[in-house]
Design goal:
Plays an important role in the elongation step of protein synthesis. It holds the Pfam family Ribosomal_60s. Belongs to the eukaryotic ribosomal protein P1/P2 family. Keywords: Ribonucleoprotein, Ribosomal protein. One of its GO terms (molecular function) is structural constituent of ribosome. It is built from 5 helices and no strands. The protein is flat, with a radius of gyration of 26 Å. By secondary structure, it is mostly helical. Helix content is about 60%, strand content about 0%. Helix 1 packs across helix 2 (about 20-30). The protein has helices at about 1-10, 20-30, 35-45, 50-60, 80-105.
Protein backbone atom coordinates (compact mmCIF):
# COMPACT_ATOMS: atom_id res chain seq x y z
CA UNK A 1 0.00 0.00 0.00
CA UNK A 2 2.86 2.37 0.76
CA UNK A 3 4.27 1.85 -2.72
CA UNK A 4 0.94 2.67 -4.35
CA UNK A 5 0.60 5.74 -2.13
CA UNK A 6 4.06 6.95 -3.07
CA UNK A 7 3.31 6.30 -6.75
CA UNK A 8 0.10 8.32 -6.47
CA UNK A 9 1.90 11.16 -4.68
CA UNK A 10 4.43 11.29 -7.49
CA UNK A 11 1.68 11.36 -10.13
CA UNK A 12 -0.19 14.08 -8.24
CA UNK A 13 3.07 16.03 -8.14
CA UNK A 14 3.15 16.08 -11.93
CA UNK A 15 5.32 13.05 -12.74
CA UNK A 16 3.12 11.00 -15.09
CA UNK A 17 5.49 8.02 -15.13
CA UNK A 18 7.37 7.71 -11.81
CA UNK A 19 10.49 5.58 -11.71
CA UNK A 20 11.67 3.33 -8.91
CA UNK A 21 14.11 6.04 -7.87
CA UNK A 22 11.29 8.60 -7.58
CA UNK A 23 9.26 6.31 -5.36
CA UNK A 24 12.31 5.40 -3.24
CA UNK A 25 12.96 9.12 -2.70
CA UNK A 26 9.38 9.66 -1.52
CA UNK A 27 9.47 6.66 0.81
CA UNK A 28 12.95 7.53 2.04
CA UNK A 29 11.80 11.02 3.01
CA UNK A 30 9.61 9.44 5.70
CA UNK A 31 12.13 6.78 6.75
CA UNK A 32 10.78 3.78 4.84
CA UNK A 33 13.14 1.46 3.03
CA UNK A 34 11.73 0.22 -0.27
CA UNK A 35 11.59 -3.46 -1.18
CA UNK A 36 12.73 -3.60 -4.82
CA UNK A 37 10.57 -6.60 -5.70
CA UNK A 38 7.34 -5.01 -4.46
CA UNK A 39 8.28 -1.64 -5.87
CA UNK A 40 8.92 -3.09 -9.32
CA UNK A 41 5.60 -4.97 -9.16
CA UNK A 42 3.68 -1.75 -8.48
CA UNK A 43 5.53 0.12 -11.22
CA UNK A 44 4.99 -2.65 -13.77
CA UNK A 45 1.26 -2.84 -12.97
CA UNK A 46 0.68 0.92 -13.13
CA UNK A 47 3.18 1.95 -15.80
CA UNK A 48 1.50 3.41 -18.87
CA UNK A 49 -1.97 3.49 -17.30
CA UNK A 50 -3.99 6.58 -16.53
CA UNK A 51 -4.28 6.77 -12.74
CA UNK A 52 -7.78 8.26 -12.91
CA UNK A 53 -8.99 5.28 -14.96
CA UNK A 54 -7.34 2.83 -12.55
CA UNK A 55 -8.97 4.52 -9.57
CA UNK A 56 -12.39 4.62 -11.23
CA UNK A 57 -12.12 0.90 -12.05
CA UNK A 58 -11.25 0.22 -8.41
CA UNK A 59 -14.17 2.30 -7.17
CA UNK A 60 -16.60 0.37 -9.33
CA UNK A 61 -15.27 -2.86 -7.80
CA UNK A 62 -15.62 -1.45 -4.28
CA UNK A 63 -19.23 -0.50 -4.94
CA UNK A 64 -20.21 -4.16 -4.78
CA UNK A 65 -18.46 -4.77 -1.43
CA UNK A 66 -20.74 -4.57 1.60
CA UNK A 67 -19.61 -1.77 3.90
CA UNK A 68 -21.22 -3.09 7.10
CA UNK A 69 -22.62 -0.96 9.84
CA UNK A 70 -26.15 -1.27 8.56
CA UNK A 71 -28.69 -2.56 11.03
CA UNK A 72 -31.16 -5.13 9.81
CA UNK A 73 -34.74 -4.05 10.36
CA UNK A 74 -37.22 -6.68 11.38
CA UNK A 75 -40.30 -7.07 9.19
CA UNK A 76 -42.49 -7.25 12.28
CA UNK A 77 -41.43 -4.05 13.98
CA UNK A 78 -43.30 -3.34 17.21
CA UNK A 79 -46.32 -1.17 16.55
CA UNK A 80 -48.33 -1.64 19.72
CA UNK A 81 -47.92 -2.23 23.43
CA UNK A 82 -47.81 -6.06 23.36
CA UNK A 83 -44.86 -6.52 20.97
CA UNK A 84 -42.89 -3.91 22.89
CA UNK A 85 -43.21 -6.06 26.01
CA UNK A 86 -41.54 -8.95 24.16
CA UNK A 87 -38.39 -6.92 23.49
CA UNK A 88 -37.12 -6.93 27.11
CA UNK A 89 -37.60 -10.71 27.25
CA UNK A 90 -35.41 -11.08 24.15
CA UNK A 91 -32.76 -8.86 25.73
CA UNK A 92 -32.78 -11.01 28.87
CA UNK A 93 -32.18 -14.14 26.78
CA UNK A 94 -29.20 -12.46 25.09
CA UNK A 95 -27.76 -11.50 28.47
CA UNK A 96 -28.15 -15.08 29.71
CA UNK A 97 -26.25 -16.37 26.67
CA UNK A 98 -23.45 -13.87 27.29
CA UNK A 99 -23.18 -14.97 30.91
CA UNK A 100 -22.95 -18.62 29.87
CA UNK A 101 -20.16 -17.88 27.40
CA UNK A 102 -18.24 -15.91 30.04
CA UNK A 103 -18.57 -18.79 32.48
CA UNK A 104 -17.28 -21.27 29.94
CA UNK A 105 -14.21 -19.07 29.40
CA UNK A 106 -13.42 -19.24 33.11
CA UNK A 107 -13.36 -23.04 33.00
CA UNK A 108 -10.22 -23.03 30.89
CA UNK A 109 -8.06 -22.42 33.95
CA UNK A 110 -6.21 -19.32 32.79
CA UNK A 111 -7.02 -15.74 31.96
CA UNK A 112 -5.91 -13.41 29.25
CA UNK A 113 -3.70 -11.34 31.54
CA UNK A 114 -2.43 -14.06 33.93
Amino acid sequence: MRYVAAYLLSVLGGNTSPSAKDIKNILGSVGIEADDQRLNKVISELNGKDINEVMNAGLSKLASVPAGGAVAVSASAPSGGAPAAEAPAAEEKKEEKREESEESDEDMGFGLFD
